[in-house]
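Reviewers of the previous submission asked for a worked example of the structure-prediction workflow described in the proposal, so we include one complete record here. The input consisted solely of the amino acid sequence. No template or homolog information was supplied to the procedure at any stage.
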Amino acid sequence: MRDIFRQSKMWHTPSKLKDNYEVVIIGGGSHGLATAYYLTKHHGIKDICILEKNYIGSGASGRNTTILRSNYKTPEGARFYDASVKLYENLSKDLQFNLMFSQQGHLTLGHTDRAMFVMHERAEVNRLVGINTSVVDADEVQRMVPAMQVTDDAEYPIMGALYHPPGGIIRHDAVVWGYARGADRGGAEIHSNSEVTAIHKDGDRVTGVTVNGNQRVNGGTVLSATAGWSSILSEMAGFELPITTHILQAFVTEPVKPILDKVIVSSQMHVYISQTDRGEFLIGSEIEPWTTYRMNGTLNFLQESTRHALELFPQLERARMLRSWAGLCDLSPDYSPILGKTEVDGFLVSTGWGTYGFKAAPIVGVTLAELIATGKTPDLIKPFEVERFYTDELVSELGAAAVSH
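From that input alone, the workflow returned the following structure tokens.
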């Protein structure tokens, strides 16, 4: 009877933490769970614990806006996110769980000559690494999105757009649940309400963590995969990461008739819009400029994002806002992630994602699992090592999110 009950749940709750694990993963979001899943699937490593201080998916993985794409500015970034999108395309089948992935296409609007020049530049970078991205004119934008207002007399007239057909949306909670179920079935342990309060070292080597202030858990490898809190964890490990933490807000309207089947991003209006499978319009904007851990919404965000959304979709004027939320974003100096090894032997990080993190979950899991299992950094993530800030080999994705950073 107990086995039948466990099979009926998405994942089971272990009775208690052990004293020792081969791998300790801090953070029960998409990156930590994906890494655990691929460790069990690709490398046969099962002695893993995932420590989440709240409930699974309570952080950035459950607070993002579900957009997937790979049309980034740098060859390193474009190749990396393209590998992730390709994994997402088959992830429902891989996890045997419906993730409701819709590759409906992604449009980054251009409102000035300079913006259109940048669009052509990005399209060429994408073309050179084999990513399907092109520049379309205003007439083609109107044909793709007939419900959107595309007029010459608008405050921000649309001159064209960067069109990325592989882009789309996916259910973020389903991704978290799918990876959690897969990691659990592979043998990893998932521990909710388990906050890491200290990190232990022997010389320059990590040896384990303290959980909830009283239980020592030893680990051969410790991975920090927490959005927003990574700088605090690195301080516990005795070194500093070049990270600042900001909040990012979004909201959804009440469900309305389906009229939008593309993801819309405006680089000058600082707004992005999509319509969910439930009919809600999901609207977001840029990160707040101040650093904070307080996830309180702001009236300024609602005023500016709704104003710009209505300039594109005036028919939403009477739609009621259903709910709003905020999440934490950690930013690196070059707006690219920091992945892999640190100066503390055995202590790995996945951080510095800004607004890009959820898009990268599958490829982060695959590459970090390979690094943990083999000790060698995969070529795909080598450009994102923290060492680049000392060797001056930055990977600048400034402006790649268009709306935010």
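The domain at 101-169+245-331 is CATH 3.30.9.10 (D-Amino Acid Oxidase; Chain A, domain 2). We consider this example representative of the routine output the project will generate in years two and three.
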